[in-house]
Write a structure and sequence with these properties.
Pfam families: Exo_endo_phos_2. Keywords: Nucleotidyltransferase, RNA-directed DNA polymerase, Transferase. It comes from Trichonephila clavipes (Golden silk orbweaver). GO terms for molecular function: RNA-directed DNA polymerase activity. This protein is an alpha+beta fold. It contains eight helices and twelve strands. The strands form five sheets. It has a four-stranded mixed beta sheet, covered by helices on one side. Helix 5 packs antiparallel against helix 6.
Length: 289
């Protein structure tokens, strides 16, 4: 594995990249390439991105990039410039995490080293959009003054970000892992799609559409087999049948936020604290008989 950083100015020399690949049959190059291309970055392309894209397509190398921005600039739109290039590697997933104070988000690459790997624990984010709307409703100020417009924009961004973080529940879950044959079909589809975007050859587009239909059929069959295997493994003795029925039929009731002595309460803990504070204030001993 090779970590690469390219300065924003200057061009990329693919001869050096070929020299790196010549030393090992299986190579993964990743880092901040400062390269933009429509294959991985929504928006305009630059010279470095065009060079890397043509090099990857001609060398049959996989371009691995997340679908969320990796670099945030206050004066320009967010971009995807932290990417990877895999030669003879089978990758399964790539995503970013918002955990550092830097203007770059860390990028995590998952690779498949063998076909017997257990399901990976991945981060699952579930947003409560009703709670999100309520937070904005109670915390969003009125029309900002023109004299302090920059501060008003910053406050607006902070309120929206806080509302997203507060109304989003993050948990570790075992995602459905697709079989190796479906993942290979997805890789082939992505390769033909990149070739079609670069060459505009109609045959590539027809091949992509055919692969999309095949992948959809394969995924539906895989889900059906998984569901049948789950049903056949259920029994009454270990309460697995009861637990599945309860999980499917149980309807979750969304409790609206409460206005307590300390402000709005959204989570279960905050609501319990609001009840406690309200009861404590209400049931006080009288000062006089």
């Amino acid at each position: 594995m090779v970590c690469i950083y390219k300065h924003p100015h200057g061009s990329i020399n693919v001869t050096e990249l070929d020299a790196i690949l010549a030393h090992n049959n299986r190579t993964f190059l990743f880092g901040d390439f400062n390269a933009k291309h429509s294959s991985w970055n929504p928006g305009r392309s630059n010279a470095s991105g065009n060079i890397l894209s043509n090099w990857a397509v001609s060398s049959a190398i996989d371009i691995i990039a997340p679908d969320t921005p990796t670099h945030f600039n206050h004066n320009a739109p967010s971009t995807v410039i932290d990417i990877g290039f895999a030669a003879n590697f089978s990758h399964s997933n790539v995503f970013t995490v918002n955990e550092l104070s830097s203007d770059h988000n860390p990028v995590i690459f998952d690779f498949v080293t063998n076909c017997q790997l257990p399901p990976l624990l991945q981060t699952l984010k579930t947003a409560n959009w009703i709670k999100f709307q309520e937070i904005l409703h109670y915390n969003m100020p009125g029309n900002p003054t023109v004299d302090n417009l920059d501060q008003a924009v910053q406050n607006f961004s902070n309120i929206v970000s806080d509302a997203i973080n507060t109304s989003t529940r993050i948990s570790k879950t075992s995602h459905l892992r697709l079989p190796i044959n479906i993942r290979e079909l997805i890789k082939t589809k992505n390769r033909f799609r990149k070739l079609g975007n670069n060459t505009r050859y109609p045959l590539y587009k027809r091949e992509v559409n055919a692969l999309i239909r095949q992948i959809r059929i394969e995924i539906n069959e895989h889900k059906s087999r998984t569901w049948k295997n789950l049903l056949s493994s259920l029994n009454v003795e270990d309460n697995s049948l009861y637990n599945l029925h309860k999980r499917i039929t149980k309807k979750h009731t969304v409790i609206p936020p409460l206005h307590g002595p300390s402000g709005m309460a959204y989570s279960d803990f905050e609501k319990a604290e609001a009840f406690k504070d309200a009861l404590e204030v209400t049931f006080q001993e009288n000062a006089e008989p």
